[in-house]
Amino acid sequence: MLFEHVGASPRIDPTAVVAPTAVVSGDVTIGPDCQVLHGAVITAEGGPITLGASVIVMENALIRASATNPVHIGDHTLVGPMASISGATIGEEVFLATGTRIFNGAHIDARCEVRINAVVHLRTHLAESTVVPIGWVAVGDPVQVLPPDRHEDIWNAQQELDFPGYVFGLDRETPDLMVQLTERYGRSLARHEHDRRLD
């Protein structure tokens, strides 16, 4: 399903294949020989999304751009089933396995592997050919790649990266943080009310 969102429509190379149950919304460019499988959602929420050549987006993956953080995915990259990419730059020949989570402002250089259920956190940079093991967390720049049982180390690095400030422009110490966050984000997402289906 293709949608015009805030006046922008997807551009899909004629050699690309988009499954009929996938959703592609807004300022999205899908390059030659890409495959977007059933249930995938590619949504440009104020910023553009670009898929290079021969990118595979598997079932139920989510790719979301924001006005602050567009998405670029380089040639010959595979986005696994149920993976999530939000506002990140992904290089060429990258493997993002099933269930991976890539957060806003992340930069993943060429030929990296982010294995099953691993996380690349906010504003984190993976140098070329870095591997994030199954279930591990990559955080920061310079990056630390940590097992999930090192929660305190991960949390300390996350605090410095300031997720609510970077993504939502809100101070973590705001007493009603979630009230302000959901109201602000809800107003932004409400722009979908005027989307127009194109197919």
CATH fold topology: UDP N-Acetylglucosamine Acyltransferase, domain 1
Total of DSSP H or I helical runs spanning 4+ residues: 3
Structural class: alpha/beta
Poorly predicted runs of 5 or more residues = none
Radius of gyration: 17 Å
> Main sheet?
10 strands, mixed
Protein name: Gamma carbonic anhydrase family protein
Features:
3 helices, single chain, UDP N-Acetylglucosamine Acyltransferase, domain 1, about 15% helix, seven-stranded parallel sheet, 24 strands
Task: Write a structural description.
By secondary structure, this protein is an alpha/beta fold. It has a single domain, classed as Hexapeptide repeat proteins (UDP N-Acetylglucosamine Acyltransferase, domain 1). Helix content is 15%, strand content 31%. It is built from three helices and 24 strands. Strands 23-22-19-16-13-10-7-4-1-24 form a ten-stranded mixed sheet, with helices on one face. Strand 22 and strand 23 form a beta hairpin. The longest helix is centred in the last third of the chain and has 13 residues, at 177-189. The radius of gyration is 17 Å and the shape is globular. The chain starts with a strand and ends with a strand.
How are the secondary structure elements laid out?
Elements: E1 2-4, E2 11-12, E3 17-18, E4 23-25, E5 28-30, E6 35-36, E7 41-45, E8 49-51, E9 56-57, E10 62-66, E11 71-73, E12 78-79, E13 84-86, E14 89-90, E15 95-96, E16 101-102, E17 107-108, E18 113-114, E19 119-120, E20 125-126, E21 131-132, E22 137-139, E23 144-146, H1 151-161, H2 163-168, H3 177-189, E24 196-197
Parallel strand pairs: 1-4, 2-5, 3-6, 4-7, 5-8, 6-9, 7-10, 8-11, 9-12, 10-13, 11-14, 12-15, 13-16, 14-17, 15-18, 16-19, 17-20, 18-21, 19-22
Antiparallel strand pairs: 1-24, 22-23
